[in-house]
Structure formats: structure tokens, C-alpha cells
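Subject: for your reference before the review

Hello V.,

The reviewers asked for a structural picture of the protein, and I figured it would be easier to keep everything in one thread rather than splitting it across files. Below is the amino acid sequence we used in the manuscript, unchanged from the supplementary table.
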Amino acid sequence: FLLDAGIAYPVLAGYPWDSGDQEYVLVNNKCQCVTVTSKFVPSKENPGEEILERNIRILVPLKARENISDPMSPLRTTFVYRMTELCKKCDPVEIELDGEIYQAQQSTSCNEPETCYTYNRDKCYTTTFPFLYHGETKNVQAVLTPASCYAS
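And here is what came back from the structure prediction:
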């Protein structure tokens, strides 16, 4: 965050894509399979100048379901990508203003559910299904992403 006259401005920063590379990852959204990187490259018009190049990589999961937690839901045919949603940062950070510590987040739309096109391996997904046992049907919860649901 940059501070100016008591107002906190978010700064979009990234991390190196590769240790020897000058390309920085700005967004790595595993939920929507999108990676946005940027790097400075020589200008084609003026080779003495560098311009900022942004690369957007989208992997479209071919067998994604409308509801990823329901294997019986229809296949997804529409994929929508909004840079404002991909770049939002909802994890609160502490900032100091006039000697006091405040919690701030860089987005105002963090309470809205995120549409996922595939499993985010950092989250635990479950589903409920009918299970017949000794003639009695019970609804049982099943884990869809065991690695993220059970601590190692």
C-alpha cells in the first residue's frame, strides 16, 4: 500500500516467474486457471526504450462442470474472466495511519462467492451423496480434494 494524506492506495506487485527471469507473476488464480505475468521488453518502435508487456495465460478445463462439486451437473460452456476479479486481494493486511494500526483489504467485493472452473488445490471441496447401507439410505459427505482437506 502507498500512503498519501491518510489514504491507502493498493499497489499491484508480483513475484518472479523464474529465479533468473525478469518476468513477474501478477495473478496466479488456480480457481479459474489464469496466470498473468509482466516484464519489460525493448520497444519495437524505439529499441532504446523498454515497454511493459503483460501476458495472460488461460487454461480452459474441457470437462468442467457448472457446479464443480456436483459430478452430475452439466458441462460448463461459458467461461467469464474479469481482470478486476482476478486481481482482487482479499487477505487483510495491517497498515499504520497516524500511529494507529488498521486492517485493510484491497478489494470491496470479497464477500461475493468466487466462480471456480476447477478445484483450487488450496481449498477443501466436499459433496453429499446417498449411501445405501443395510437397506437404509443415508446422506454421506465425501471429500473431493483429499490433499487439501486433511492436514498431513
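For the response letter, the relevant points are probably these. Strands lie at 2-4, 7-9, 15-16, 24-29, 34-42, 50-58, 93-97, 100-104, 126-133, 136-143. The mean pLDDT is 78.

Happy to draft the paragraph if you're swamped.

O.
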